[in-house]
Design a protein that fits this description.
heterodimer, A: about 500 residues, alpha+beta, Beta Polymerase, domain 2, Cytochrome-c3 Hydrogenase, chain B, 2 domains, four-stranded antiparallel beta sheet, 16 helices, about 40% helix, globular, B: about 270 residues, alpha/beta, Alpha-Beta Plaits, Rossmann fold, five-stranded parallel beta sheet, three-stranded antiparallel beta sheet, 8 helices, 12 strands, about 15% strand, binds iron/sulfur cluster
Chain lengths: ~500, ~270
Amino acid sequence: MSSRILQVKNGEAVEARAVPRLSVDDLQGLVADVVTAGGRVAALYGREEAGELLVTAVLPNDREGTLGLLSAPVTKEWPSLAPECPAVQLFERELAEQYGVVPRGHPWPKPVRFEHRLGGAGPDAFGREGPRADIPGGYPFFAMEGEEVHEVAVGPVHAGIIEPGHFRFQCHGEHVFHLEIVLGYQHRGAEGMLVGGPTARTVSLLESVAGDTAVGNALCHARAMEGLAGVEVPPRAAALRAVALELERLANHVGDLGALATDIGFLPTASYCGALRADFLNALAEICGNRFGRGLVVPGGVRFDLPSDAAARLAGRMEEAFSRVEDAAGLFFDSPSSRNRVDGTGVVPKETAQALGLLGPAGRASGLQVDARKTHPFEPYSSATLPMVTLEAGDVHARARIRFDEARASAAFVVQVLRQLPEGPVRAPCPAPRPGRLAVSLVEGWRGELVHAVTTGADGRFARYKLKDPSFHNWMGLQLALRGEQISDFPLCNKSFNLSYCGYDL
Amino acid sequence: MISILRTRLRLGSQTIAYPDGPARFPERFRGRPALDAARCKAGCAECAAVCPTEAVGGAGTSDLSIDLGRCLFCGLCQEACPEGAIAFGRDYRLAARTREELVARGDVPLLAQALGAEMQRVFGRSLKLRQVSAAGCNGCEAELNATGNVQFDLGRFGVQFVASPRHADGVVVTGPVSENMLTGLRKTWEATPAPRLLIAVGACAISGGPFAGSPVCRDGAVGAIDGVPVDLFIPGCPPHPVTILDGLLRLLGRVQGNDLRLTGTGIVAAEPAR
Ligand code: SF4
Ligand code: SF4
């Protein structure tokens, strides 16, 4: 079996043609084997080469810290693996939308993000031909029938300042039987725009794939580029990048704890966490001038150094900031009225989480051991003692608690790294990518594992840039979390996942 | 309850002093750029070559400019310029009423003008806005949300984001306006009663930003809704919450001219009385 899968390290580049080329049957068989054995699929995506569609699978081995690569040429259709492996259902739909490959026997053959075809000609697998009038929402919704069953439709424009998406509930009174989420409103054609790069635009575009994960995506990209060029970043750069990644995690986790408190009307935590989140954003701005860490991480290192005395001062302030978070968020976890709302709400059992391949805090709250910082680490994570925090309950409380506990671990990590910044430069030259290579880069962003799978053509330019946000897996988790719940608990469940619309829509 | 009060005491008041007093920006914050075209060497285009969004105009000529509507404030052009002709300062006042006024030249800021007297009368004391994210990346959305938190507290000025377009006096657009969101944006606009304002926040909504030229986006809000001009542009990627506050307050005529200025430490102070 091993010769049919090429094992590589996170971020390591290999010759694209060294990836084993199997038949569709063999590829699907190996994917099914890995999933049945408790493994997962990090990516399953198409790429056109010499007029042929090649599907590549990325199968992480979380115990060994390697990524298994394999591929198969696919024509107009293939048998769907989704009935056996629900974790691949969305990958197959994406292949249908992007390349017109029909997954025969797929139980849920629907568009993913109302994207135009990336490759091939003619109508896509849903019979659509662009330019077309279809927009998200023009969609075969799952519907229930019965005299007392009713539908509730929400979105794309929601009540608050929030990205657009459409939620369709099948209800009986307050009781939700089923929730279906349709996305695609945010589709900007990111993958298509990246082809032919790198250009002066590439890094900014990737920082904008999901603006709340700007550091995560910039880092994921930089590591892929360094792999493709065959360079190492200086230790001080690696340390500063990790600080930025954890500050991004802290800002989002703390902000979301506040937002959860808002949704249940628990005002002390709501207002303080909203303001405390800013301490972490402002720390990023102190390092690079931008509150979201934009412009900091580039291939080869970082653009801004932090003098060691400033780093020590920042460490002190972060320590202080997190002790305030302990107070503000602690109130929420100690208050019986808030616990009453979050305990046992929106449960995703471990088996479901496993079957869907949930990632990040959502997966860890249901007991999955998924954290790329631990399983596919790079420096300084490989030598750090950052714990992997998991819980079993899989409810709103667990998803909130995970954020709190992880934020604490991140704060300690940030303080420690800032106090011991390695000496030396913060940037090394990063030459152009080598031609004909594939690098798969994994970074644990605050929502979970980000994947950038980058293939260069004979000219060294991006022939295919596959992006995956953890939300790609996790939106289905939210839909299942709502089953059997009260519709009024939707905001709370939604916030406990806080998934990315644009990261999914690309 | 006791612990809530104790936490309240420990955390204190969080609201920034702006606009009555200072708004603080970190040292490396990049606000309005000052351009010194006299330093440009003929034929040089280092700045334009590194710019992600083709925001630099007239590189290597006496007409060096930066289109703040396209600019992401990444500072790469400043880093690339061998002559020191571009310097991003900490002036956070970036909003403008027209697309042309966003093109920065030299080092004198063009500040956004207030609405006419009649519109000021209608909206000056109370402005309700409906936000529509049309493929915004959640950066601009996050900063718009931040304007409402206890720190920036937009509500102090009678400005509020509301849930229904029926209750709104205007629509705030973020994002490059994807095809897939065009209908949603237009319907929201139609549902907003006149007189109404259209406000574009962020490089994406002004020019497409990093997604300018995308085959599935509209390069922002300009022209996205037939015959509807944009009343206020607030640049940035994303704009700082204080830049957003400042833009809205200038539009309403609540902050005018130079009566707030930046000191060397990046602190905004009221101009001393003469
Ligand atoms: S700061 Fe603005 S003008 Fe300068 S390179 Fe960046 S985007 Fe272009
Ligand atoms: S302007 Fe920048 S922050 Fe705002 S939506 Fe566009 S990419 Fe995101």
